[in-house]
């Protein structure tokens, strides 16, 4: 018997032995699940037939309620958008859907927040493939995966909010929904487990003529009730079928006093976002207090014995900002695309989240926790097959908190040019006091002030959420 044939005979024998034992069969199924289950659905590679034959629910959650999984909602959304084919280099034409677009907001019926409520389950307790996909090397849940899920979920919620009575039932949804910014994602003290179900839920909280604000919650079922993991606020824009110009969305008419108050807070958040944008370091000169801070850093890091003051010295328990920068390069593939054949925003957010964590880990030499991410902007769509470069830098520290900034850039190898498409601000928490990060150049000084402003804004808006426990 040849070695190759002997190998396959052994494999077949082991499979028969496993069939005789439930425990061994379970192990075999688990191994197979790692190959076949839990694969990314961002590519939406399924047929129209399989979509129509799929059940709307997938069983019972750990709390005994009937559930719909997030993957099923993703497939339903893709089906409504007309994406029911394997990947093709060129997106099918959608210009014929232009005639179904609403011309004004007034021709659309007003909606309540209750109309857009969506709830689904990420079935980690039942799907071993998902467990592998969501588990970190420490045995906790990958934050980047959760951020990725929240991004596509907001599109599902926004789609449910938009209702156009004139749209025929057999016509694909004509509008393009894109994430324009992430206002904030806040993580609680609770540490999610990779083998327990996670519930994702949310609804629309505010709209303008063509933009939609969505709140998303993640909870995990443990000790017979749902534990809060995070709360997030996303802003999406409704565009025409070719993603060229903005289109109207349904206005909100509060159904009760609670929805009225949520809408008022949405107006306040709009004002805050405008104020935060105007306070960016590129638009607002450092205040007298900030200038004094930078001067004190310069004096502290200059050699008093050097008359030229060109020699810089690093004080104890400090790190130069330039030494904290790390980068990576990613080649986007078809499975990383969204419904419109550009790179899925959640994919970019996942990689930015994980690169930020690595930068914090290398900086403080502790395993930090991501506590908040926000003021995330999406400037330009990224085509599939793009070479994406990401750069993470620790820009500010306070006690045991680390503020990181991540830039995503698209690099063109032919021209050698880069275009910055995204900016991400993260706040990480370490279990002990971290070194002070210090700038050396004017550019780094501006990053330092911008990071300090973001951290101060979090402290002011979140009360004691970022109060040091040390």
UniProtKB/TrEMBL annotation:
Keywords: Hydrolase, Repeat, Transit peptide
Keyword Transit peptide: yes
UniProt GO BP: acyl-CoA metabolic process
CDD domains in alphabetical order: BFIT_BACH (cd03442)
Domain HotDog ACOT-type, residue spans: 119-242, 322-434
Gene Ontology MF: a single term: fatty acyl-CoA hydrolase activity
GO cellular component: mitochondrion
Annotated family: Belongs to the acyl coenzyme A hydrolase family.
This protein's name: HotDog ACOT-type domain-containing protein
């Amino acid at each position: 018997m040849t070695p190759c044939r002997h190998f396959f005979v052994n494999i077949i024998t082991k499979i028969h032995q496993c069939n005789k034992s439930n425990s061994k069969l379970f192990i075999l199924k688990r191994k197979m699940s790692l190959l076949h289950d839990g694969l990314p659905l961002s590519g939406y590679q399924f047929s129209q037939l399989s979509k129509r034959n799929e059940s709307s629910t997938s069983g019972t959650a750990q709390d005994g309620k009937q559930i719909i999984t997030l993957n099923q909602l993703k497939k339903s959304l893709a089906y409504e958008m007309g994406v029911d084919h394997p990947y093709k280099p060129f997106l099918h034409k959608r210009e014929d859907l232009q005639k179904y677009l609403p011309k004004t907001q007034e021709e659309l019926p007003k909606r309540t927040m209750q109309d857009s409520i969506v709830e689904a389950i990420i079935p980690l307790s039942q799907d071993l493939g998902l467990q592998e996909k969501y588990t970190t090397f420490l045995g906790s849940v990958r934050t980047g995966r959760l951020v990725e899920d929240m991004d596509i979920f907001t599109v599902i919620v926004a789609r449910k909010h938009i209702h156009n009575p004139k749209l025929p039932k057999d016509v694909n949804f004509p509008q393009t929904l894109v994430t324009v910014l992430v206002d904030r994602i806040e993580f609680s003290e609770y540490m999610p487990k990779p083998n327990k179900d996670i519930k994702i839920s949310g609804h629309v909280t505010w709209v303008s003529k063509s933009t939609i604000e969505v709140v998303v919650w993640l909870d995990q079922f443990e000790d017979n009730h749902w534990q809060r993991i995070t709360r997030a606020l996303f802003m999406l824009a409704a565009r025409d079928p070719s993603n060229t110009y903005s289109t109207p969305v349904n206005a909100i008419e509060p159904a009760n006093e609670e929805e009225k108050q949520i809408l008022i807070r949405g107006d306040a958040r709009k004002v805050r976002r405008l104020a935060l944008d105007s306070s960016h370091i590129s638009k607002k000169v450092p205040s007298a207090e900030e200038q004094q801070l930078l001067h004190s850093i310069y004096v502290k890091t200059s050699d008093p014995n050097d008359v030229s003051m060109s020699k810089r010295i690093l004080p104890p328990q400090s790190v130069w900002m330039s030494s904290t920068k790390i980068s990576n390069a990613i080649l986007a593939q078809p499975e990383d695309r969204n419904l419109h054949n550009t790179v899925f925003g959640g994919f970019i957010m996942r990689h930015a989240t994980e690169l930020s964590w690595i930068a914090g880990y290398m900086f403080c030499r502790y395993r930090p926790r991501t506590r908040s991410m926000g003021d995330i902007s999406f400037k330009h769509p990224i085509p599939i097959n793009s070479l994406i470069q990401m750069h993470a830098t620790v820009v500010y520290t306070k006690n045991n908190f680390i503020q990181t900034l991540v830039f995503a850039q698209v690099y063109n190898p032919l021209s050698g040019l880069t275009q910055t498409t995204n900016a991400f601000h993260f706040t990480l928490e370490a279990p002990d006091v971290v070194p002070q990060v210090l700038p050396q150049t004017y550019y780094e000084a501006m990053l330092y002030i911008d990071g300090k402003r973001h951290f101060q804004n979090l402290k002011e808006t979140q009360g004691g959420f970022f109060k040091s426990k040390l």
